[in-house]
Amino acid sequence: SKGTGSLSENSGKESKEGEQLFVGSVGGDVSLNYSPTLAFPSISTADFQFDIEKASDIIVEKVIEFVNKLGNARLVLVDLSHKSKILSLVRAKASEKNIDSNKFFTFVGDITRLHSGGGLHCNVIANAANWRLKPGGGGVNAAIFSAGGPSLELATKEQAQSLYPGSAVVVTLPSTSPLFSREGVTHVIHVVGPNMNPHRPNCLNYDYSKGCKVLREAYTSLFEGFATILR
Ligand code: AR6
């Protein structure tokens, strides 16, 4: 005689369960009832070896510059591990600066599985790409191209061939991509950050005055690209 969980069977229960039921029922539709949200990784701080103290200052500075210009949209910095140093640094600095935590927050999870694995709805994700916009190479770039499938690779090729450090390109995701159908992602923004790794192209040889300028440009291009999707 156990119920199937239909609304009528639950209607007499206490409000707490009612709320849980409601959340569960809207959770099935990725496209409705959620603020536009950009999930982004920390650009350049892993394979490209950019200093995380400096990067965390720049992320917070750029979030402050853009967050109130984006209406009800949200910005979310993502990393894979609860032990992520960049996430703790940014969290501490963002709270020091009293950034509205409804509009900007950090999230632990795989950026290609935010909805299916973490219950977070993000219609746009950013990629820390390489200048040739090629799949593979490890890090978040390999993960996003692999999860996006051949349709992401093709759409990227059609919309851009290469990017210089500090720039970004907004790619509209075809509905055939698993990132669209499974995660509800409509756009991927590829961003190329400054590179401090001598084994990668365009290495800046620890020139941080140039590097910080390029990282600022990268976040400006990313957030401006996100703004064009919202219009
Ligand atoms: N989900 C969320 N965050 C991730 C994921 C993931 N699946 N994978 C990595 N991160 P990196 P870069 C975090 O090295 O330093 C690539 O191979 C990671 O912990 O991906 O800009 C490209 O082809 C870190 O915080 O990017 C380029 O050649 C952040 O994402 C080069 O690496 C960025 O790490 C770019 O290097």
Computed Rg: 19 Å
Identify the overall geometry: globular
Helix content: 40-55%
Give the strand content: 5-15%
Spatial order of the strands forming the largest sheet:
3-2-1-4-6-5
CATH classification class: Alpha Beta
The assigned CATH architecture is 3-Layer(aba) Sandwich
Residue windows where pLDDT falls under 50 for at least 5 positions: 1-31
SSE succession: HHEHEHEHEHEHEH
For the report, how would you describe the main beta sheet? Answer: 6 strands, mixed
Total helices: the number is 8
The distinct bound ligands, ions and cofactors come out as: ligand AR6
Descriptive notes:
Strand 2 (74-79), helix 4 (85-96) and strand 3 form a beta-alpha-beta unit. The protein has one domain: Leucine Aminopeptidase, subunit E, domain 1. Helices cover 43% and strands 13% of the residues. The chain is an alpha/beta fold and 231 residues long. The protein has helices at 7-10, 15-27, 52-67, 85-96, 114-118, 139-159, 178-183, 208-230; strands at 37-41, 74-79, 104-108, 124-128, 168-172, 187-191. Helix 3 (52-67) crosses helix 4 and helix 3 packs parallel to helix 8. The N and C termini lie far apart (51 Å). The chain has a six-stranded mixed beta sheet. The site of ligand AR6 has 25 residues, from strand 2 and helix 6.
